[in-house]
Amino acid sequence: MHENSSAHPLAFGIDIGGSGIKGAPVDLATGELAAERRRIKTPSTSTPQAVAEVLSELVDSFDLPADVPVGVAFPAPIDHGVVRFIANLDKSWKGVDLPELVHDATGRRCTAVNDADAAGVGEQRYGAAKGVDGVVLVATLGTGIGSALIVDGVLVPNTELGHLEIDGHDAESRAADSAREREDLSWEKWAQRLQRYFETVEMLLSPELIVVGGGVSKNHEKFLPLLHLRAQIIPATLRNAAGIVGAAALAASERPLHA
Q1: Helix (H, G, I), strand (E, B) or coil at 124
Q2: Which domains does the chain show, CATH number per domain?
Q3: 5/149 Cα distance (integer angstroms)
Q4: Contact yes or no for 13/251 (Cβ under 8 A)
Q5: Which of 10, 49, 130, 166 is in the most buried spot, having the most CB atoms within 10 Å?
Q6: Distance between CA 151 and CA 149 in Å, rounded?
Q7: Could you give the C-alpha distances from 196 to 120, 123, 176, 200, in angstroms and in order?
Q8: What average pLDDT does the chain have?
């Protein structure tokens, strides 16, 4: 693990979204934010260079030792640090080496990871899935369905399990929280769709544990008890900090996903 001059090792986590870029230093001993999170609006023209300037401003706004690494959670699949394709930011991100861009902007070592994967790692190392061996699925229910698959503590990156085709439909088009809101579904009706989704994932992957995140997880008592699966299914605990915490944890790993 990466050491520095603070009492506990630190890494800086950044969560890049379509509307906001959030960051904070993370105490790697506890998984807690070591300072209050700061948010800067995502530039309206969200090119790599424009976002890099925001990242530099964000990191520089905290008084960090020079050896503190940066982990970035990014809203796209990341293949060895390179953005494969992009939906929520400027199309010019395709093919960009994200760790190199962040290193050039901040002077710090950087690891880049898909945002759903970052949240999954945060929950696995410090949250609801801490200490669980075997296959763990962390699913975030929001506009779509994000997924992170972790096997014996090792992330299998860039799974897109929200896009499984189930009963002739893209799964997230029917089971995401946005579908519940769009169709004004009751919790019971939505739970029936979640049941179909999670039982299909369970048939394919046989997870030991399913952790459900996303903003709707704060209402977990209204829908999780309605699901009947072999795996235990529980709410996430890190909530909005999961991406920052997971990205920071990966940045500080001895074997980061992308150096």
Answers
A1: helix
A2: 10-118+241-251 (3.30.420.40), 131-237 (3.30.420.40)
A3: 34
A4: yes
A5: 10
A6: 7
A7: 22, 24, 12, 6
A8: 94
